[in-house]
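tokens incoming
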């Protein structure tokens, strides 16, 4: 056996059973439920795991817009944006997003991972220093590695540590590019940083600030515009259409200078087939619905607060944050998987999140509250969960 095969074989053999992943396919059915493609036949599972926060992925207006664009433009763009892949719907979506977010320019990408790679390669190089929240998304860390920049990490949402690192870096190399990375809603924690204070720190120490708003847009901030909306000192926003927008793809929003640099210098933008036109059309329709229904997001957040209170009253540790992501800390990997199985037996789908996605000993169920979940879901969930382990009592 060649050495590379032994390395892969031995690496797989070293994975404990509780850390192994399997691909599962689900067939969507009416009422926001999913039916597993494999396994014992049973009732559909009520989906408490997907990021379709506003229930727009099946909205008639979103589907109709995507279908019309599919008929007009075909399924794929057939080329990169700089060759033949640009369609009118791309420009329309970019302009609408720029106006909605109060940014000078937006560029579309096929995925959020790709957008974050592009952002890091545009703003950092091997001479730069990137200071990232310890829990930022893997795509941002992959972007740092691709850029060749030096990486430092600060404790989650700890602005005192961030300030110490910024001050030390500025004193050592005043002219060095310094870039801070954070998210407005951390998708496994449910938490949000004090972005206004963070932006002021970056301004004071001459640092750039990139905020990933993937899980906040459509839900948090003024009229769902995200927690970075209106803040001076946020130089680049990363967002996706695969969450609250119910579509697919992603974007970067910036001032004209940064956006033009991305257009001219970003290989992640230049060398990829453009976002599928039907997805862009669906996202544009979703944006229109978000703007036209300003009461939906506040109602979802109020319901999320009731869920937090209900889970805490049932003896579970209160999920952090105030958005629609409610992590239910379990701790042990096997215990998290067992709790997932218990919920599935009760007709509820909530996925166990284990290392390396979260730190060791921090396995959890990631509960996601969606606007279209039926009333009565919370008592059903609490009954299925059963008593919280004594180690997790508040």
């Amino acid at each position: 056996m060649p050495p590379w095969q032994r390395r892969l074989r031995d690496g797989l053999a070293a994975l404990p059973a509780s850390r192994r992943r399997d691909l599962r396919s689900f067939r969507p059915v009416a009422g926001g439920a999913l039916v597993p493609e494999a396994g014992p036949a049973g009732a559909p599972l009520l989906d408490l795991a997907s990021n379709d926060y506003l229930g727009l992925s099946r909205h008639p207006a979103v589907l109709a817009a995507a279908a019309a664009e599919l008929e007009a433009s075909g399924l794929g763009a057939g080329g990169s944006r700089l060759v033949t892949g640009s369609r009118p719907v791309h420009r329309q979506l970019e302009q609408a997003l720029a106006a909605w977010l109060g940014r000078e320019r937006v560029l579309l990408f096929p995925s959020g991972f790709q957008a974050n790679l592009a952002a890091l390669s545009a703003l950092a190089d091997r001479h730069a220093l990137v200071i990232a929240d310890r829990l930022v998304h893997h795509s941002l860390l992959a972007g740092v590695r691709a850029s060749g920049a030096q990486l430092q990490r600060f404790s989650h949402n700890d602005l005192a540590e961030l300030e110490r690192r910024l001050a030390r870096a500025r004193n050592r190399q005043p002219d060095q590019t310094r870039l801070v990375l954070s998210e407005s809603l951390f998708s496994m924690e449910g938490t949000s940083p004090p972005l206004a204070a963070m932006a002021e720190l970056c301004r004071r120490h001459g640092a750039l600030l990139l905020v990933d708003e993937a899980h906040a847009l459509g839900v948090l901030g003024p009229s769902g515009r995200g927690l970075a909306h209106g803040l001076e000192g946020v130089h680049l926003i990363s967002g996706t259409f695969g969450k609250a927008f119910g579509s697919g793809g992603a974007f970067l929003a910036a001032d004209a200078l940064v956006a033009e640099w991305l257009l001219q210098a970003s290989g992640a933008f230049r060398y990829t087939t453009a976002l599928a036109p039907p997805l862009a059309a669906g996202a544009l329709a979703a944006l229109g619905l978000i703007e036209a229904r300003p009461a939906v997001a506040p109602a979802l957040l109020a319901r999320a607060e009731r869920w937090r209170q209900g889970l805490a009253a049932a003896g579970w540790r209160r999920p952090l944050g105030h958005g629609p992501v409610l992590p239910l800390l379990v701790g042990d990997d096997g215990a998290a998987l067992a709790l997932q199985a218990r919920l599935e037996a009760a007709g509820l789908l909530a996925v166990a999140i284990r290392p390396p996605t979260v730190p060791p000993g921090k396995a959890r169920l990631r509960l996601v509250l969606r606007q279209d979940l039926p009333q009565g879901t919370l008592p059903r969930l609490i009954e299925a969960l059963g008593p919280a382990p004594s180690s997790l009592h508040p």
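note: The two ends are 52 Å apart (CA to CA).
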